[in-house]
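Structure Section — protein described below
Tokens — whole-number codes for backbone shape
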Amino acid sequence: MKVFNRDTNSDQRHAIAEGDANTATTITIAADADEFWVLDHLTFSGDSDPDSGVTLTITFGSTVVFKHYITNSGVGPIPLNALATGEKNEAVTITASAAGSGKKINLSVVYR
């Protein structure tokens, strides 16, 4: 995972994860005792249409708060409208399950 600061808002960060063929792609935002996390925007893209049953999941701590199927390749932007963990010291995990043989998915998230 790579993390970048954004110019548009001084407290926004941008993390990306580049997928590998037939492997789950994950972004993990580590828990911080002094912070709760707010997700503003998520983007995924696949290099080809994934196999059936491929999901995109967001978990706060151990609670799944978002889970949807990825059905097509290309860019899929998802505005999250300040989806927040609600509690300090809670990690965020964003996972795209394995897309299938020879297929990969990339993830990008803007958070603060």
Remarks:
- Strands lie at 2-5, 13-17, 25-29, 38-46, 55-60, 63-69, 74-84, 92-96, 105-111.
- The chain has a mean pLDDT of 90.
- The first strand starts at residue 2 and ends at 5.
- The radius of gyration is 14 Å.
